[in-house]
Amino acid sequence: MPQHTTYELVELLKKELSEEQVTVNKTVRELHSKDESYHSPRLPDIVVFPKNTQDVSRILKISSQLRVPVVPFGLGSSLEGHVIPVEGGITIDFSLMNKVLEVLENDFLVKVQPGVTRSQLNKELKKYGLFFSVDPGADATLGGMVATNASGTTSVKYGVMRDQVRDLEVVLSDGMVIHTGNLAAKSSSGFHLNGLFTGSEGTLGCFTELTLRVYGIPEHVAAGRASFPTVQHAVEAVVSILQAGIPIARVELVDEPSIRQVNRFSDTHYLEKPTLFLEFHGNEAGLKQDVEFTQELVNGHDCEAIQFETDTASRNALWEARHNLAYAYIHGNPGRKMMVTDVCLPISELAGAVAHARKNVEDLGLTGGIVGHVGDGNFHVLLMLDMDNAEELDKANKLNEQIVLYALERGGTCTGEHGVGFGKQKYQQQEHGDALLVMEKIKRALDPNNLLNPGKIVRTDKKGAII
Amino acid sequence: MPQHTTYELVELLKKELSEEQVTVNKTVRELHSKDESYHSPRLPDIVVFPKNTQDVSRILKISSQLRVPVVPFGLGSSLEGHVIPVEGGITIDFSLMNKVLEVLENDFLVKVQPGVTRSQLNKELKKYGLFFSVDPGADATLGGMVATNASGTTSVKYGVMRDQVRDLEVVLSDGMVIHTGNLAAKSSSGFHLNGLFTGSEGTLGCFTELTLRVYGIPEHVAAGRASFPTVQHAVEAVVSILQAGIPIARVELVDEPSIRQVNRFSDTHYLEKPTLFLEFHGNEAGLKQDVEFTQELVNGHDCEAIQFETDTASRNALWEARHNLAYAYIHGNPGRKMMVTDVCLPISELAGAVAHARKNVEDLGLTGGIVGHVGDGNFHVLLMLDMDNAEELDKANKLNEQIVLYALERGGTCTGEHGVGFGKQKYQQQEHGDALLVMEKIKRALDPNNLLNPGKIVRTDKKGAII
Lengths: 467, 467
Description:
Number of helices of chain A: 17
Radius of gyration of chain A: 22 Å
Shape of chain A: globular
Structural class of chain A: alpha+beta
CATH topology of the largest domain in chain A: Uridine Diphospho-n-acetylenolpyruvylglucosamine Reductase, domain 3
Oligomer: homodimer
Strand order of the largest sheet of chain A: 15-12-14-13-17-18-16
Helix content of chain A: 25-40%
Largest interface: A-B, 97 and 98 residues
CATH class of the largest domain in chain A: Alpha Beta
Strand content of chain A: 15-25%
Largest sheet of chain A: 7 strands, antiparallel
């Protein structure tokens, strides 16, 4: 039972921070009550805007002393309810901590505050001939991307968010500040805290500074589109490309309904067939050989048309269209909410999983597009839901479950890149078995009162304690 | 205080396993009392040889019930005392669990038992046109390599051991069996237990099955040697190669004294100058361009001679010579013990660190070679010590400390790939600060009685409890 009123808590926070950094304004709280998903909103009691690490430490000390839940918030682009404060309390909005602190160009590293967005970072890095590789659909904050271990179209070559993290400054549940890593390219010193905190979704601590790996902008880039008679043909072509050892930088599946959305939203005229968007990075001679070999391989899978973009503008247009796909669906379905499935499977199981998903979408009478980072074995079914139609919502939940169970039975995971939040919490026991108990022991050791983003990832009993 | 005699413990273990799997034979215990380092040996009380996961679970249940320390043991090739049972107890030797269980060639995965060595695995993988990338100097077991997060010459391209781990079957301190991952190429589901258990050096659990990533043998490979007037020139050339974005697969520094050892031990006739051993993987055209560009770059750093090996035999001889370097030193210094420093720094600090190390070796009047995985910023000083010469041992310890402190002050780590064991435990507080408290909380949560390889990584108080 809390020992304080919200009024007292606000006064305390204002004293420790400043007047204008603490608000109970309803509009602001509403903005922090939801993410981009179909999950039901819940208002936080208070929203605070820290300016530095010390502010965050002060907030967590108060939260810990008064037993108030805290939820870190980037831009609210999560897809499984991660930032929804299901037990109320304080939401920490990191939008004032949005500086690129240092570009260590010779070490291919960058230090940023958690509120920096990926496009903001890339704009800064471009001056140095560098880029940050991870590119989820949303222009998310980097803090949020670390929190969910986000990925995107380039992870098949450059890895996921966790692979980019060299060091995190983290404020723990009691306000203590630690660093989880260092600046060296590798280390065998102590437990891998970088890896543990990446993907912890605010349940183990709040990030206040991130040191991330960056890459030189590739000397040469080739991008193209390959169209196939069916999604199966496209997926099987990807398997061939990977097995041939071609170091592809991006390989994205966009199915027929999704290509139609792209064309409508982005004013493109791409062939409305199941399509692979492809990209290669490297030196000129190597690239040419990779592209030729890929053409041979896709032709062996009945590729109907393959088109390489020759100029930078067309290439950018292609990836912009791909990135805007979720927004194309939202734009094309006003008043509806998005549900996106997110399983990832071993590549040998991908074709079967996509066929299973497509059949189930049709059997349930739903309409949804299939897209995916197929080089990683990760695909999404995008559904636009009428939240007032209980039957439709029920069918969508059933589909999501069918897709998850299919993946789990075949060595896959319920979430390749969106994270658990509370939407995927119900599958944690089935996916991890007794390993979930280990996660819960770690959570209990680091957040004994379950105040850091409670209700996410690990299970909680009716009294709010970690199981 | 233990509630049992060793005799009783042996009887219990023999009952749970079988007569021939449990021994107190002194010769066997002596073989399990040490690793390849200068650290002082200590005999285990008992050595057991499990045949399967259930055996390991039974051993850990007994260890936990009777409060007996347990130390997992692969081949004893660790370099910081990892497998030395500093508190006695049971050593678990995994040599009977040495099967390659399954090659999932279409998924680029392999399932192995922990006692499989890297050369044994590569021999099996070759049949499928695949290889396992991580190659420490020793032909270590894969279980040991996961335990220390080992790496080697190829991590600049393929990553370290942790990057290869998809799933571990782990027996926890109470005998419970968990899986830390799955078969998918990426996942955002739950805390990153793969990463946490990799590099945990037997302090959090014992591995009984490993699912690891493997790679297609590259279509084309080019390898060569480039000699420079000084180590500084060589290191600066590496920085240029990395900054040019050339996707080099291996880049190893071998200094002048070390090249002499190589020539003597491996019967080669390499120019006795600071040398980079280089390797490139890729398609034919791309490789040619990479090699030409590299030649241009090294020439800009006063490269005195560059020689590419044209046939597979010479290429293999080159890497065999590099891998045998530590043994060349041991062979050339009979009766002496090896101390190897192992810092890793941001690449921009590498040239300074190597110069600092070389100067300190000379100032202290020691003789030692410098080698390194310089593409990662990781280098070693190899010292051959007369263990009866207290002054020499003292100087070597002083050098090791100077090198570690230099690295820590510049954002580096005290160990790039050898791990902590007890040799680097004294630097954990300085390197990790309060993050060490987090590691200790995790250790306490998973091994409350501190029975799993006690005395390694985390601090222990005088009563044997974790601090």
